[in-house]
Write a structure and sequence with these properties.
This protein is an all-alpha fold. The protein folds into three domains: 181 residues, MFS general substrate transporter like domains (Growth Hormone, Chain: A, Up-down Bundle), CATH 1.20.1250.20; 55 residues; 233 residues, MFS general substrate transporter like domains (Growth Hormone, Chain: A, Up-down Bundle), CATH 1.20.1250. The chain is globular. It is found in: Cell membrane.
Amino acid sequence: MKDTTKPPYGIIAILFTGAFVAIFNQTLLNIALPEIMNDLQVDAATVQWLVTGYMLVNGILIPASAYLIQRYSNRAIFIVAMSLFSLGTLLAALAPSFGILLAGRMVQASGSALMMPLLMNVILAAFPIEKRGQAMGLFGMVMIVAPAIGPTLSGFIVQNYSWRVLFFIVLPVALIPLLLGIFKLKNLTFQNRELTLDPLSLILSSIGFGGILYGFSSAGSLGWASPAVYATIAVGLVALLMFTLRQLKLDEPLLELRVYKHPMFALSSIISVTLSMAMFSAMILMPIYVQTIMGISPIQSGLLMLPGAIIMGIMSPVTGRLFDSYGAKVLAISGLTIVVYTTFLFSNLSFETGYYEIMAIYTLRMFGISMVMMPVMTNGLNQLPATAYPHGTAINNTLQQVSGAIGSAFLVTLMNTRTESAAQNLIAAGATEQAAMIPAMLEGINFSFTVSTFIAIASLILALFIKKPDLHATEEEKERVYKQRYAD
């Protein structure tokens, strides 16, 4: 009899490599946008679509991943996903115009959107519940370290080479896992169910999540008074409400929202959303502070965040082991206490705050986040039966995209509003408009970090209610509870 207790490390390694390059690509272009504007002769509002469009495709396709993972094998999904990603990378590298570059970027996104839910589902299926924390710790390393490295590498390349080099570097790295997937990857088919895709659910999901993502991600550049912002958010919210009501009526929903009847899964989702919003405050506001107020170059700005990424890379597997031993509650409370403290320190920035002081605080903050994100998410998923994993992972990944966009837009808007108010006060006190802007912006950044501190405190309070799911519950018992809650 074949021993099925040993996890398929070779399969997981191939999936990890593909996921890493796909997620790494998400933040690769952020620092290169000004260079692309100059080279392809487009304005800031247009070039921003390289980021916004990528997020939109992710927001549209991730909810559909639950259907795809249940319907098709992990091998088929991986090969298609990496083929699309590689094709999009090549198209973007050779793009003669902005339109072709944007098309390549969105083809990339169509492949990368499937990688995170796929990898998470394979880990949940391959590892027993008592060893799942370590594996999910490695997954957390991919999820957070990969996008953190992107700006640093991008800053170095753009400063010394053409922005196209970014894509030419990614292409061979993407082709390696694709070839390994074709020749070496085996199926871990856990469900392979004959499902019917509900077209209306897919349309409502696309309009709902896509509209909300576009609206909030555009608010920072277009302003909240723009119809492109409030109209798309309003349409997105209405579509999302209709989508939710429809899912609760279908026997085979696109996203099984009844997983929220499991209290630990619901709690983990809320904590993850609030933590994502707090995390994005530093990722968005710190580059503004160090580049605009301190006058630091983009590459130094990227390097400032690199130690935090390295710490997270080291800590994620360690945190996973600690999770297996002690559970999520102790880690979440400890980590969130660090996040609250460091975010509070960031709310008191000044003109005298040193570069290495900021680096130390940011690194400590990322250390705290590494103790929370994956343990809390894994604890919630552990309460679900295996048949609900595709829906749980799809919901978690979708919420991370949406909460990241909402958090970024919300905090940037707070910064801009407070900056304008502080500038007017300084001008009324006799300062020139030019002299007032920098101190006013500093006040705006500090105010946003103050609000982010309260968001982190909310996460800490919620973490007090975390409980460890029954590790001895069989799949049959969890399935019975799941169906009972489904029926209720």
